[in-house]
Amino acid sequence: MMTPIKMDKRTQKVKLCVIFFFFIRFVQSYKTNVIIKTQKSLFGIVSIFPEFCRLVNFLERIICYKIMAEKIKCLIIGSGPAGYTAAIYASRAGLQPIMYQGGQPGGQLTTTTEVDNFPGYPHGVDGPAMMQDLENQAKRFGTDVRFGLATKVDFSSQPKKVWIDDTTELEADAVIIATGASAKWLGLEGETTFNGLGVSACAVCDGFFYRNQTVAVVGAGDTAAEEASYLANLCEKVHMIVRRDEMRASLIMQERVKKNPKIEIHWNSETEEILGDANGVTGIRLKNNQTGKTEEIALTGFFVAIGHQPNTSIFKGQLDMDTQEYLITEKGSSRTNIEGVFACGDVQDSIYRQAVTAAGSGCMAALDAERWLAAKGLH
Ligand code: NDP
User: Domain span at residue 113?
Assistant: First the structure.
């Protein structure tokens, strides 16, 4: 005699769901292929079928969601130095993290040619190569690194819900946000043509390559003032391009640039074109927006410092942000206003924005997530 196989409750439920799923599919195809085509008026079935099918579709969506939503202990969104460092720590702590890399795997550093200021690389390293090293290191400890962009989140319940590319639904106990910030650009063609060949959005990263040369900084905020002062210590001359007749930077920063003999400020000026050849930038054409007068300036480095945009749009209305839309974390931690959601890297840092500070905060986020999961009995 055959012994009946005993199924646990979960397996039974899944099996029922699968059967129901196929039943629904059968009913739908029956409706499309048989009833609509051949017996439109039979017993008035057609008149009630649209409602029935809508109900079926609704039930199907619920069932698919329940079957397909992947359950994750620790989800990392974003793959810059912060995300990868969080991944290294989280995987070593046994959190089995899954990382979705976002629209630009590797983040901002993949657009930089050489990184000279990240500890551990005595001879410098290519930005993309460094990010590949970090990815390999995270994978070595078991991080599941996946392509995909988080397009929607719902942090109102536990576990948190995250949608990838508008289709894949995930449920995560803890979420680490490392989506970074993107430099704003002027929109000139030369910014793309000469990116890494004279055009940069980070003086601290790339200024060293323009030692004793002539460069320009566009912008008039604290970042531009700081970058102009930084570059003046390295370069022969710095042209600061300001679009109005005053600066937005704090007074002390303004005084610093105005007093520096190596910095020449071009008021009411806008860059019309970045000039260059196969070797990179050779100059710019400026236009005075009051007089209409244009002039060409010979230089080799063009630094755009008109602000950054943190990648936080999908968190609006759920996570606390400052006036510039950077995520707010508790002082000395990576905790956001929602329990179990942590933020690290440039997405929560408008001041330092360095790969090494991002990496440090990624470590903090993983430690915070581990402690939180343990305290909640989820790890
Ligand atoms: P800001 O938004 O403060 O300044 C951006 C600057 O870029 C403005 O002067 C703006 O001009 C100019 N700009 C914007 N678009 C264009 C354009 N298309 N063409 C030319 N110029 C343009 O950004 P920052 O990155 O400077 O600063 C962001 C925040 O970080 C600020 O709160 C700042 O105080 C802070 N910060 C603090 C530092 C510190 O304390 N050490 C260091 C760096 C930043 P306009 O004024 O005409 O709008």
Answer: 70-182+308-375
Residue 14, domain member (yes or no):
yes
Residues whose beta carbon lies within 6 Å of some atom of ligand 1: 186, 218-224, 226, 243-244, 248, 306-307, 350-351
- Measured between its terminal Cα atoms, the distance across the chain in Å is 44
Res 32: pLDDT:
41
Atom of ligand 1 at shortest range from CA of 184: 15
Residue 60 burial (C-beta neighbours within 10 Å; 0-12, 13-18, 19+): middle
Q: Which helix (H) or strand (E) holds 193?
A: helix 189-193
Report pLDDT digits (tens) over 117-153.
Answer: 899 999 989 888 999 999 999 999 999 999 999 999 9
Give me the half-sphere count of Cα atoms (radius 13 Å) on the Cβ side of residue 264: 11
**Whether the Cβ atoms of residue 280 and residue 177 lie closer than 8 Å to each other:** no
CATH assignment at residue 143 = 3.50.50.60
| Alpha-carbon span 32 to 106, nearest angstrom | 47
8 A C-beta contact, residue 106 and residue 206 = no
CA of 314 to the centre of ligand 1 (A): 24
Q: Ligand 1, from 240, 250, 273, 350: best to mutate by most atoms within 8 Å of Cβ?
A: 350
Global confidence as pTM:
0.71
Q: Which residues are annotated as catalytic?
A: 202, 205-206
CA distance 175 to 179: 12
Q: Are residues 194 and 299 in the same domain?
A: yes
Assess if residue 287 is contained within a domain: yes
Same domain, 87 and 167: yes
How would you class 322 by CB atoms within 10 Å of its CB: exposed for 0-12, middle for 13-18, buried for 19 or more? exposed
DSSP 338-371: STTEEE-GGGG-SS---HHHHHHHHHHHHHHHHH
* Cα–Cα distance, 307 to 201 (Å, whole number): 9
Q: How many domains does the chain have?
A: 3
